[in-house]
Amino acid sequence: MTGGHIKLLPPLAAREQQEERERLLLSLHAEMRCCEQCVSAGYLARAASVAGFRGRIGDQLMLIGQAPGHLSVERGFPFAGPGGRILDSWLQRAGYPAGALHRQVYLSALTKCDPGKNPRGGGDRKPSPAELALCRPFLLRELALVRPRAILLVGGMAIEAFLGPQLLHDVIGSSFERNGVRLLPLPHPSGVSRWLNAPEHQRLLAQALAILSGWRQAWESEGESAASISTQE
Ligand code: SF4
Question: Can you list the domains of the chain with their CATH numbers?
């Protein structure tokens, strides 16, 4: 598979430089909240980013979407709207407990501010290539600090950023690996996308969630064997 523009560093355990990474992540979040670059450049009338918590150092799973919606900005946490509820239900299908989306997954997006509605209808406006480029350093810094084991790429834009241009039905249901980081493409959960209406696409989603379930089980058994080694010591 060719394409993919974002370079990934290998996963890093939470205990490695944990305090330093936590400190840097907090200051990165503060910087993102204050950023006005798209306003200065004339791309946004107002910089509306998500005020609240996005995740922790040590989250094994990161999720990258397109951009926050207005409900997430209003409510102050990422994936606060119906899309978040659907994503949480997908995680439950992969064996995670209810609420895992906000408790166990680092939540990110290609751009950090609500791009507003698409003036031609059909849901949220897609951030332009110029906005993506301006915001990209924030995403790269999040990736470099969180160092997840796997990334859920939600929707066509996030998939393209990592895997190059792809048709959803060619990549959903498969996983990829870059520098030791696993990538799992998923469709956008929004009702605006009709991709999931086709039964064969639902089957591809089920296949993707089965892959995620396998990763979760392997990570849990690693955790259990590490715990049993430390109690034997
Ligand atoms: S989208 Fe990103 S670069 Fe643009 S103003 Fe918001 S935080 Fe800054």
Answer: 18-228 (3.40.470.10)
